[in-house]
């Protein structure tokens, strides 16, 4: 039976893309609140014979936002290049470049849950917002804007530009689904 609805967001992780093209072990991003992904690309028509003769579509990846309950200092240092001085002050180095990473997350379904990988992401520095408390206390969250562009991945002997991977918790996909957060799972690779 196939899912009829998708709900919930949990288990957001990241794995840094190393200079040699390998991946670090996935690390949990605590407190995932919300995620949005907007497709980037364009569709254009070529006209001939007095009509739209051919349609060309481009996939430029996604732009997205991940809202977290709190963006931890260790994650800011790993993903944004923030640094810690000897006296313990964490600072934003204006020359630092964000690290490329794979974003992993899970959504729930009425039948089977799904796990996702965005294979080549880069964060933008988040805004900081703080509000005074009043008669009710609502936590301030951090929203991380990111870009996910295609990554070159070897699949069945061919180099393919891949932006996203998805696995559903079914009997056929169980091995890869279960290994999703132990190491980055690539299309075409055995679990």
Question: How does this structure look, described?
Answer:
This protein is mostly beta strands and 191 residues long. The chain has one domain: Roll (Pnp Oxidase, Chain A), CATH 2.30.110. The chain is 7% helix and 45% strand. It contains 2 helices and 14 strands, in the order ββββββαββββββββα. The strands form 4 sheets. Strands 1, 2, 3, 6, 9, 10, 11 and 14 form an 8-stranded antiparallel sheet that branches. Strand 9 (101-109) and strand 10 (114-123) form a beta hairpin.
Strand content of the residues, in percent?
A: over 45%
Name the structural class.
mainly beta
Got a strand count? Answer: 14
How many domains make up the coordinates?
1
Evaluate the radius of gyration: 20 Å
Which CATH first-tier class would you pick?
A: Mainly Beta
Element order: H for helix, E for strand: EEEEEEHEEEEEEEEH
What is the overall shape?
A: globular
Helix coverage percent? under 10%
Return the CATH topology.
Pnp Oxidase, Chain A
Count up the helices. Answer: 2
């Amino acid at each position: 039976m196939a899912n009829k609805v998708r709900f919930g967001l949990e288990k957001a992780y990241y794995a840094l893309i190393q200079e040699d093209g390998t991946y670090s072990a996935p690390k949990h991003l605590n407190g995932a609140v919300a995620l949005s992904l907007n497709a980037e690309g364009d569709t254009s028509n070529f006209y001939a014979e007095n009509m739209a003769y051919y349609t060309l579509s481009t996939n430029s990846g996604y732009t997205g936002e991940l809202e977290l309950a709190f963006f931890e200092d260790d994650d800011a240092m790993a993903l944004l290049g923030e640094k810690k001085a000897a006296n313990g002050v964490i600072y934003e180095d204006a020359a630092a470049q964000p690290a490329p990473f794979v974003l992993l997350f899970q959504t729930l379904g009425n039948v089977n849950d799904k796990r996702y990988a965005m294979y080549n992401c880069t964060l933008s520095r988040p805004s900081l917002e703080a509000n005074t408390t009043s008669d009710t206390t609502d936590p301030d969250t951090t929203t991380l804007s990111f870009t996910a562009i295609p990554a070159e991945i070897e699949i069945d002997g061919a180099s393919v530009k891949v932006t996203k991977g998805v696995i559903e918790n079914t009997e056929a996909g169980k091995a890869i689904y279960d290994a999703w957060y132990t190491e980055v799972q690539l299309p075409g690779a055995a679990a």
